[in-house]
């Protein structure tokens, strides 16, 4: 597969976890918007703001605005509408914000002309059972993820963020029309960093992931374009 081969519905969402717009733009400039999508998270958004998100959208990229809203329903409803006005492709909230918050967010987006996909983070991929116990959540990460994924679907959202290790069970529970976005993706041999519940790109898609969030394995690579092309090539049969 050539580095620039365009893909129908790119599966890789590159996490642009950079300190400022200039670094992010240098990284993005050689990328082809038909081979990946981009995720803007809290660090870059705090530094570069809505203007930079609009710039990425204007460059032709599908942007996942990953601000993981978790607040009272009215505040989250207004926040997802502001995200929609930036033209983003996907936006997220924390499922731990509860049914009323998720339903308010969904209803708010239904009023918008441009409606991004709305997904909910279940349990962060950096958390293990002991971390959950410490904040009063009984059961395994998997138990909690399954419960929150069911609540998210029932609240009318488009999908969840979860670890690929839980994707197969969730896929079985929710059926095919629910979006599973999985971070904690590590190509064989790459550093795990602070992630705990990880899988390779091909394993994750095999398990039922719809989209893969990949940050440092691509952004810290000596050749990001090659690493992206290798990941895309490993997914060509799916
Ligand atoms: O919502 C997310 O994207 C997210 C949820 C989660 O449970 N775990 C998780 O790692 N993420 C994000 O996915 C990205 C993973 O980056 P890397 O670990 O560098 O691949 C980061 O931008 C995280 O903020």
Automatic annotation (TrEMBL):
<feature type="binding site">
    <location>
        <position position="17"/>
    </location>
    <ligand>
        <name>substrate</name>
    </ligand>
</feature>
<dbReference type="GO" id="GO:0044205">
    <property type="term" value="P:'de novo' UMP biosynthetic process"/>
</dbReference>
<feature type="binding site">
    <location>
        <position position="215"/>
    </location>
    <ligand>
        <name>substrate</name>
    </ligand>
</feature>
<feature type="binding site">
    <location>
        <begin position="66"/>
        <end position="75"/>
    </location>
    <ligand>
        <name>substrate</name>
    </ligand>
</feature>
<feature type="active site" description="Proton donor">
    <location>
        <position position="68"/>
    </location>
</feature>
<dbReference type="GO" id="GO:0006207">
    <property type="term" value="P:'de novo' pyrimidine nucleobase biosynthetic process"/>
</dbReference>
<keyword id="KW-0210">Decarboxylase</keyword>
<comment type="similarity">
    <text>Belongs to the OMP decarboxylase family. Type 1 subfamily.</text>
</comment>
<comment type="function">
    <text>Catalyzes the decarboxylation of orotidine 5'-monophosphate (OMP) to uridine 5'-monophosphate (UMP).</text>
</comment>
<comment type="subunit">
    <text>Homodimer.</text>
</comment>
<feature type="active site" description="For OMPdecase activity">
    <location>
        <position position="71"/>
    </location>
</feature>
<feature type="binding site">
    <location>
        <position position="186"/>
    </location>
    <ligand>
        <name>substrate</name>
    </ligand>
</feature>
<comment type="pathway">
    <text>Pyrimidine metabolism; UMP biosynthesis via de novo pathway; UMP from orotate: step 2/2.</text>
</comment>
<dbReference type="InterPro" id="IPR014732">
    <property type="entry name" value="OMPdecase"/>
</dbReference>
<dbReference type="InterPro" id="IPR018089">
    <property type="entry name" value="OMPdecase_AS"/>
</dbReference>
<dbReference type="InterPro" id="IPR013785">
    <property type="entry name" value="Aldolase_TIM"/>
</dbReference>
<feature type="binding site">
    <location>
        <position position="125"/>
    </location>
    <ligand>
        <name>substrate</name>
    </ligand>
</feature>
<dbReference type="InterPro" id="IPR047596">
    <property type="entry name" value="OMPdecase_bac"/>
</dbReference>
<dbReference type="InterPro" id="IPR011060">
    <property type="entry name" value="RibuloseP-bd_barrel"/>
</dbReference>
<feature type="binding site">
    <location>
        <position position="216"/>
    </location>
    <ligand>
        <name>substrate</name>
    </ligand>
</feature>
<protein>
    <recommendedName>
        <fullName>Orotidine 5'-phosphate decarboxylase</fullName>
        <ecNumber>4.1.1.23</ecNumber>
    </recommendedName>
</protein>
<feature type="binding site">
    <location>
        <position position="195"/>
    </location>
    <ligand>
        <name>substrate</name>
    </ligand>
</feature>
<keyword id="KW-0665">Pyrimidine biosynthesis</keyword>
<dbReference type="InterPro" id="IPR001754">
    <property type="entry name" value="OMPdeCOase_dom"/>
</dbReference>
<feature type="binding site">
    <location>
        <position position="39"/>
    </location>
    <ligand>
        <name>substrate</name>
    </ligand>
</feature>
<keyword id="KW-0456">Lyase</keyword>
<feature type="active site" description="For OMPdecase activity">
    <location>
        <position position="68"/>
    </location>
</feature>
<feature type="domain" description="Orotidine 5'-phosphate decarboxylase">
    <location>
        <begin position="11"/>
        <end position="231"/>
    </location>
</feature>
<dbReference type="GO" id="GO:0004590">
    <property type="term" value="F:orotidine-5'-phosphate decarboxylase activity"/>
</dbReference>
<dbReference type="Pfam" id="PF00215">
    <property type="entry name" value="OMPdecase"/>
</dbReference>
<feature type="active site" description="For OMPdecase activity">
    <location>
        <position position="66"/>
    </location>
</feature>
<dbReference type="GO" id="GO:0005829">
    <property type="term" value="C:cytosol"/>
</dbReference>
């Amino acid at each position: 597969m050539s580095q620039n081969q365009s893909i129908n519905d790119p599966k890789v969402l590159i996490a642009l976890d950079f300190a400022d717009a200039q670094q992010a733009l240098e990284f993005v400039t050689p990328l082809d918007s038909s081979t990946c999508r981009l995720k803007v998270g809290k660090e870059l958004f705090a530094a570069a703001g809505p203007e930079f998100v609009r710039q990425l959208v204007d460059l032709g990229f599908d942007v996942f605005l990953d601000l993981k809203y978790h607040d009272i329903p009215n505040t989250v409803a207004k926040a997802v509408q502001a995200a929609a006005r930036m033209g983003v492709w996907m936006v997220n909230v924390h499922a731990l914000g509860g049914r009323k918050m998720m339903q308010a967010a969904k209803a708010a987006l239904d009023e918008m002309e441009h409606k991004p996909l709305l997904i909910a983070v279940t349990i962060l991929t950096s958390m293990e059972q002991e971390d959950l116990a410490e904040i009063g959540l009984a059961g395994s990460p998997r138990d909690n993820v399954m419960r929150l994924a069911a609540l998210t679907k029932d609240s009318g959202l488009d999908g969840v963020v979860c670890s690929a290790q839980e994707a197969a069970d969730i896929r079985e529970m929710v059926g095919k029309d629910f979006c599973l976005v999985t971070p904690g993706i590590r190509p064989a041999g790459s550093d795990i960093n602070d992630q705990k519940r990880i899988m390779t790109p091909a394993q994750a898609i095999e398990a039922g992931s719809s989209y893969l969030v990949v940050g440092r394995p691509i952004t810290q690579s000596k050749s990001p374009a090659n690493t992206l092309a290798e990941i895309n090539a490993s997914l060509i049969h799916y």
